């Protein structure tokens, strides 16, 4: 097996893996209304299930980022996906709301093992020149995987039974784990070894002597963390309130038509990721300009949304464009930037930390965006997004100065 063929297999395996991760977490959203009817619960209790997932997933990122740099990432992923598969099976058979609540929290903890370990495997196989391309490809499941999972599993749940939305992802994971165990190679052998950035970087002793706290402060990662929180808050708030925004701004259109048009938002999110890859290449792997442009556009789109009022088409267009640039930011913040820390042998930890902050932003987004909507309407949400975008802009500008030391 040639090096080129090996790298293709690794990328396909990682893409399939991360798509299955979204099948194992987005399935709840696909059939949540049916579960509410089954368990006789209201929106508050239903929302708590999702909140518990975000909390455990976010907290697990810190632990899994450390483990991915220390343990065998292939085994961590195998164990994490096996536990997630079992969690989905239990939820699918559950007849108790409390059991669903607990097991979905367990599911979040299990799935948190996946990303940092996947990231480390990709860093073993691909060179610095390929990081931009990798950051684009591995980010696609966050939009396409989400869209296919929600739409496909919802149709199945409508035609057959909501429990299949948990059984099917579990069955797919079960089959995939056999392929993963047989074909996944954590790193190239000596003959195929990729010339990674670590070849021209600091020694192992220096890397071990550089604590992650120093990277956070001295190298300005604290400001990237602020941008990650902003990105996570805006992205998940759109995912949460997007359908209700479109429903309230549509007049003559039916609910099914509005639901179909909502697909435009994750679709343009995918376009945004691809556009970000082009920007990274255009600026020769310099992420300052792309990030600055992304947050500037996010500010303009948010400001434009605050002026659209009850107009449906301007709202869906601008909301989709906002989602596009925010998804692009996610690809840079959680995938590309951590690759620059390969020489410190802490790239998986950095990626896990930034993912943790993204999901902390997601947790805060549900509360703060809900408050803004309740007191100021949808225009209040958009102005809130605009303020956050400015905060992201300033954080990126400050990080540019700090980053010069890296």
Task: Show the helix and strand layout.
Layout: H1 3-39, H2 43-70, H3 73-93, H4 97-111, H5 114-125, H6 131-137, H7 144-159, H8 164-183, H9 204-208, H10 212-217, H11 221-249, H12 255-261, H13 264-282, H14 288-308, H15 312-339, H16 347-403
Helix pairs in contact: 1-4, 1-5, 1-7, 1-8, 2-4, 2-5, 2-16, 3-4, 3-5, 3-8, 5-16, 6-13, 6-15, 11-15, 11-16, 13-15, 14-15, 14-16, 15-16
Structure in a nutshell:
This protein is mainly alpha-helical. The protein contains 16 helices and no strands.
Rg to the nearest angstrom? 21 Å
In terms of DSSP E residues, the strand content is under 5%
Structural class: mainly alpha
What is the percent of helical residues?
A: over 70%
Largest sheet: none
Query: Could you give the order of the helices and strands?
Result: HHHHHHHHHHHHHHHH
Tally the helices: what do you get? 16
| C-alpha geometry | globular
pLDDT averaged over residues: 78
Distance between the termini: 37 Å
Poorly predicted ranges: 194-206
Please provide the count of β strands: 0
């Amino acid at each position: 097996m040639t090096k080129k063929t090996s790298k293709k297999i690794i990328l396909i395996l990682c893409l399939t893996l991360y798509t299955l991760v979204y099948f194992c977490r987005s399935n709840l959203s696909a059939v949540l209304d049916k579960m509410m009817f089954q368990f006789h619960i209201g929106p508050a209790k239903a929302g708590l299930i999702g909140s518990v997932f975000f909390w455990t997933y976010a907290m697990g990122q810190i632990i899994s980022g450390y483990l991915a740099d220390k343990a065998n990432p292939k085994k961590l992923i195998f164990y994490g996906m096996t536990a997630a598969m079992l969690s989905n099976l239990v939820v699918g058979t559950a007849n108790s709301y409390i059991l669903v609540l607990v097991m979905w929290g367990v599911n979040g903890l299990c799935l948190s093992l996946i990303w940092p370990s996947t990231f480390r495997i990709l860093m073993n196989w691909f060179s610095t020149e390929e990081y931009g391309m990798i950051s684009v490809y591995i980010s696609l499941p966050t939009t396409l995987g989400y869209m296919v999972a929600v739409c496909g599993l919802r149709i199945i749940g409508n035609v057959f039974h909501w429990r299949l939305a948990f059984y099917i992802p579990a069955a797919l994971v079960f089959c995939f784990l056999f392929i993963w165990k047989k074909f996944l190679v954590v790193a190239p052998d000596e003959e195929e070894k990729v010339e990674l950035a670590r070849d021209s970087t600091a020694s192992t002793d220096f890397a071990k002597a550089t604590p992650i706290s120093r990277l956070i402060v001295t190298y300005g990662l604290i400001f990237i963390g602020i941008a990650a929180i902003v990105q996570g808050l805006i992205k998940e708030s759109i995912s949460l309130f997007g359908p209700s925004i479109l429903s309230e701004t549509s007049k003559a259109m039916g609910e099914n038509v509005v639901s179909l048009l909502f697909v435009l938002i994750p679709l343009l999110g995918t376009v945004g990721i691809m556009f970000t890859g082009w920007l990274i290449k255009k600026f020769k792997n310099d992420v300052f300009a792309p990030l600055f442009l992304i947050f500037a556009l996010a500010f303009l789109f948010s400001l434009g949304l605050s002026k659209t009022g009850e107009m449906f088409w301007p709202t869906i267009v601008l909301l989709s464009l906002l989602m596009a640039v925010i998804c692009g930011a996610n690809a840079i913040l959680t995938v590309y930037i951590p690759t620059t820390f390969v020489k410190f042998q802490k790239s998986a930890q950095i990626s896990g930390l930034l993912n943790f902050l993204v999901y902390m932003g997601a947790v805060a987004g549900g509360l703060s965006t809900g408050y803004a909507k309740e007191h100021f309407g949808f225009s209040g949400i958009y102005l809130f997004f605009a303020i956050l975008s400015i905060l992201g802009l300033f954080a990126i500008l400050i990080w540019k100065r700090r980053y010069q030391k890296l």
